[in-house]
Amino acid sequence: MAIKHIVGVFLFSTLSACIVNAQTPVIYDVRKYGANSGADISQALSKAWKEACESTIPSKIVIPKDIFILSQVKLEGPNKAPIELEVQGTLKAFPDPNQLPDKKGQWITINYLNYFTLSGGGVFDGQGQTAWKMNDCHKNKNCPKLPYNLSFNFINNSIIHDVTTKDSKNFHVNCISSHNVTFRHFTISAPDESPNTNGIHLGRSTGINIIDSIIRTGDDCVSIGDDTKEVHIQNVTCGPGHGISIGSLGGYATEKDVVGIYVKNCTFIGTQNGVRVKTWPSTPAQLSITNLNFEDLIMDNVSNPIIIDQEYCPHNLCKRDRPSFIKISTVNLKNIRGTTNSEEAVTLLCSNLKPCENVVVGDIDLKYNGNRGPITTKCVNVKPTYVGKQNPPLCAPIAHSV
Ligand SMILES: *[C@@H]1O[C@H](CO)[C@@H](O)[C@H](O)[C@H]1NC(C)=O
Ligand SMILES: *[C@@H]1O[C@H](CO)[C@@H](O)[C@H](O)[C@H]1NC(C)=O
Ligand SMILES: *[C@@H]1O[C@H](CO)[C@@H](O)[C@H](O)[C@H]1NC(C)=O
Ligand SMILES: *[C@@H]1O[C@H](CO)[C@@H](O)[C@H](O)[C@H]1NC(C)=O
Ligand SMILES: *[C@@H]1O[C@H](CO)[C@@H](O)[C@H](O)[C@H]1NC(C)=O
Ligand SMILES: CC(=O)N[C@H]1CO[C@H](CO)[C@@H](O)[C@@H]1O
């Protein structure tokens, strides 16, 4: 049995070595397509990309270790064989978003691909400092639309690993209509005060994994939009920023369900929220949000470690005449510990029209590190089931003095 196993391993490794050899990718170095140090490489990259997409054997486009300008680029499929973009160097955006050739476009758009890999240890530097000053969207509905850093749309079976995106002008990464995509060793950094610089925004996607990553930003660490299923977020450190958020949802009548979100083994450092679900009141959307699993989370000086808010209405930009139509069910909150800097540590504020159902909480251990009174929790239209320890007691009935 043991010998058979060893032979098996030997055969397997020989075989996989052959496969790897057979699949050694063809290299497309952007320097061969006219990329020069310090200059705009958009055209060189587009040319190399086009040729690589035509390759019927795996291809790899290499951006070497150097500093380049990238004005704007759209890298699109279909690709005929697995395709990799290896960014070893630093790609800098123009500081002023008005310099984008296509002002309506994003900085880097990656569309319609199957078996795509983005790798290389390089940096996408959005140079957002100028653009952030132009962002007044919190008070102006017609604010100028700023570009995202990386926009992935319609990509399947793909891996984005060992790259950094910093100082995006708006959301760092947008991943829409994609299936089976893994972000790994992915670093995002932008300062606390940068507006709307969500780390990774997901929407209309299935099977997205965000693992072993660090996300420091001014807005949500990961935000999950409608029609998104099977998202696994594991070993991610968030902070600064607004934490991991499902929603906001309910803004549009056509929105579809969010199902199967797993946030495991993550750490939140100084974030506004830990895990959050937010839905607008008074909206026509009737979707449901179900099977949410928040487990093994560490909160370090977080304002709202756990929050379900079905009356989400920032800057009062909504009507409140009716409750949310969105149903939230099957929520598991397990082993969540650490410190909070607001006395109201846990808020489960569900819709009075569609109360939250099947909420299970266990092994909560949160300490309030301030001095505005005892730690509390707030629960509305929800009756959780308890397993394990509760500190503070979640949704404790108000103590009546006799
Ligand atoms: C990705 O997968 C979806 C769902 O299976 C499919 O509709 C789409 O055509 C695929 N896209 C690519 C680029 O392979
Ligand atoms: C998901 O994508 C990865 C990376 O390309 C691939 O290895 C894996 O086989 C895909 N999984 C499925 C179920 O297709
Ligand atoms: C968690 O992610 C960090 C950051 O990428 C990494 O250094 C660490 O090795 C990961 N931990 C595990 C257990 O994989
Ligand atoms: C979870 O995090 C702990 C501490 O950082 C680490 O030791 C453990 O390997 C992690 N587990 C997974 C599955 O990432
Ligand atoms: C905790 O967060 C509060 C509010 O964000 C901040 O003022 C304080 O300095 C933080 N404390 C530590 C120890 O980081
Ligand atoms: C997708 C996108 O374009 N986001 C930003 C990424 O970073 C650079 C710098 O901000 C910006 O130019 C991009 O707009």
Brief characterization of the structure:
This protein is mainly beta and 402 residues long. The protein contains three helices and 27 strands. The chain is elongated.
Structure description:
The protein has 402 residues and is mainly beta. It has a single domain (65-134, 146-391), classed as Single-stranded right-handed beta-helix, Pectin lyase-like (Pectate Lyase C-like). It has helices at 2-22, 42-54, 129-133, and strands at 26-29, 59-63, 67-69, 73-76, 83-87, 90-92, 108-114, 116-119, 123-125, 150-166, 173-176, 179-189, 200-203, 206-216, 222-224, 229-238, 244-249, 258-264, 267-269, 273-279, 288-302, 304-309, 327-340, 344-349, 357-368, 376-380, 385-391. It has a 27-stranded parallel beta sheet that branches. α2 links the parallel β1 and β2 (59-63). The radius of gyration is 23 Å and the shape is elongated. Belongs to the glycosyl hydrolase 28 family.
How can the largest sheet be summarized? 27 strands, parallel
Briefly note the structural class of the backbone: mainly beta
| Top-tier CATH class | Mainly Beta
Which geometry do the CA atoms define? Answer: elongated
Number of strands: 27
For the record, the count of structural domains works out to 1
Question: Which molecules other than protein and nucleic acid are bound?
Answer: 2-acetamido-2-deoxy-beta-D-glucopyranose
| Low-confidence residue ranges | 1-21, 398-402
Helix content: under 10%
Task: Let me know the CATH homologous superfamily.
Answer: Single-stranded right-handed beta-helix, Pectin lyase-like
CATH architectural arrangement: 3 Solenoid
- First-last Cα distance: 72 Å
CATH topology: Pectate Lyase C-like
Secondary-structure element pattern, one letter each = HEHEEEEEEEEHEEEEEEEEEEEEEEEEEE
Number of helices: 3
Q: Compute the average pLDDT.
A: 88
Percentage of residues in strands: over 45%
Our Rg estimate from Cα atoms comes to 23 Å
Active site: 242
Subcellular location: Secreted, Cell wall
GO molecular function, one term: polygalacturonase activity
Pfam families: Glyco_hydro_28
